[in-house]
Amino acid sequence: MTDFNRSVLPDAVRSNGATPNPWWANAVVYQIYPRSFQDTNGDGIGDLKGITSRLDYLADLGVDVLWLSPVYRSPQDDNGYDISDYQDIDPLFGTLEDMDELLAEAHRRGLKIVMDLVVNHTSDEHAWFQASRDRDDPHADWYWWRPARPGHEPGTPGAEPNRWGSYFGGSAWQYDPKRGEYYLHQFSRKQPDLNWENPEVRKAVYRMMNWWMDRGIDGFRMDVITLISKHLDSHGRLPGEVDSELSEGEIGEEGYTNASPFCSDGPRLDEFLAEMRREVFEGREGYMNVGEAPGITPERNEFITNPAHKELDMLFLFDHVSIDQSPESKWDTHAFVPKKLQDRMSRQQEAVRNAGWASLFFCNHDQPRVVSRWGNDSDRESRELSAKAFGMLLHMHRGTPYIYEGEELGMTNAHFTELGQYRDLEAINAYRQRVEEARCQSPESMMAALALIGRDNSRTPMQWDASRYAGFTPADAATEPWIGVNPNHVEINAAEEFDDPDSVYGFYKKLIAMRHDNATVATGEWNLVAADSEQVYAFTRTSGDDTILVVVNLTDRSAGLPGEVAELLGDGVAESQILLSTYDVAHGVKSIARGELARWEGVVIQL
């Protein structure tokens, strides 16, 4: 078990309801997107040796856990989230020996490694799927195979088993001539869904997970794990199938029905997660398991992460990162409204007040850069202030914070202007589906949406320095990076910020240290203040007699101090009470005294 250089929370402090408190209750996780983190062989794609070479940087930052996006063998249709061999490393990233070296070097520095795991689906090139194409093979029922609709020629429009659409555009069904049937894929056609109703599928998944745990990893972040249980009628039919007792709903603007209500948080989800816990994690120490949770409400998060139910330690909820998107389509975007963020995050915090735990994030490999999405990246001062404001807001909540690579530098969206600059399958397919086929969105509107929330915004190379390829790959490399480097790497990079205590990087180091050393920040009770404020998000964190007030102006203009906040502060605050400020201590004291926060001003105050 890895030892940490940080405080251990006393058992008198309650975290998620477990006794003793789990080791991760005051930890901070750092997500690495391996293909964009560090390239050591000049092929334009990051690798495991590159991650190992940057471990000292991560140890200096102070994080505790490294979450790696998939590095398994894969055709890379969806950048590794289409796995063809769970027990091997893709040559793009290195070898199993490179993985063992990374584990050893990380553990030597007190860092844990959590691997991304995709078991809702595999690649269509996985041996399991290839075997399932034969109806007489033992794997024949390992995926969701269905015949064509009666009266339709298989493989032609309208012959699909139901009218579900894929998250990546088009039908969620793909016809396979060899088997003579369709298979379900909620994502790419090269990502067929596994049939978790089959106990042999589950046994195979657990064997593979145990193989990795025995090899020394410290847990898993499980991709779309809440989609593994599908809603079926009493005869095992999916909604919308011929003679199914379940309706599949209305057809949307892209020409398909929505599978999400029938594949998210299905009737056997709790059973499957509890079984996984028993078969993989029971009896082990020092691990964490985190699930990506589309379709899960904050209230269900409480149940699943309550240690008494023995399912998962944490879940990633998405209700707060959809506040600027239409319910009908993520590509129909709207302006950021701070009050909406406050409402969603408040609900998440309230749901785990008595049991369970929250995952805290704004950015990851599927989300754009928060400083561009909700902040202001138009100039250096605005970018740094808004990056600090959102960092403070997130890290002062109750739960486990997740930092996505480059977030600690204030990295911005890519600001691509042409479709050819994008590499993401979702983005390219969505443009074709919405603009060229369904014609439900204009090219200009779609390009604006991609520039704001497209996934490639977070996937440009990590900005290490001001050199030609940002230090991600050698400046004289014969091969360019797999995706364009953000031109602003000349101003925004680790080398520029590393030794500057006033930089975004320096600010994140302070946030992480507070999480480690202050039990009130890590686990204290959370209470919203000034619920009606349109600009200021304020809350307290309380542990026993200790109370901390967090006040953040989430707008690009000054904001009056809400009356409820002023009442808590009484006659004002002294410099000694300011624990952290997005400006500086003196500025925070003056702002409180005049009752007005400057743009993007955030202050953490000891009451």
Describe this structure in words.
This protein is α/β, with parallel strands linked by helices. It has helices spanning 48-53, 55-61, 96-108, 127-132, 199-215, 260-263, 269-281, 298-305, 338-351, 370-373, 380-395, 425-437, 443-453, 494-497, 504-517, 519-523, 563-569, 585-594; strands at residues 29-32, 65-68, 72-73, 85-89, 112-117, 145-146, 173-176, 181-184, 219-222, 288-292, 314-316, 359-360, 400-404, 525-529, 536-543, 546-553, 559-560, 578-581, 596-597, 602-606. Strand 15 (536-543) and strand 16 form a beta hairpin. Helix 5 (199-215) runs parallel beside helix 7.
- Overall geometry comes to globular
Number of DSSP-assigned strands: 20
Percent of sequence in beta strands? 5-15%
Main sheet properties:
8 strands, parallel
Residue ranges: pLDDT <50 for 5 or more in a row?
none
Structural class: alpha/beta
Task: Summarize the amount of helix as a percent range.
Answer: 25-40%
Terminal CA distance reads 37 Å
| Average pLDDT score | 96
From the alpha carbons, calculate the radius of gyration and give it in angstroms.
24 Å
Arrangement of strands in the largest sheet: 11-10-9-5-2-1-13-12
Count helical runs: 18
